[in-house]
Amino acid sequence: MKTNALTLVIVVVLLAVAAAFLRPIIGVSRPNWPVITDTDKESILSTLEKWSHEGINGIIPKNQWPLAIVSLKPRGVNLYGKQMEILISGGGVGPGWGYLVSSAPILDDGNILVRSEDHRFHKFVQQN
Question: Which of 21, 36, 44, 113 is most buried, judged by most C-beta within 10 A?
Answer without folding.
Answer: 44
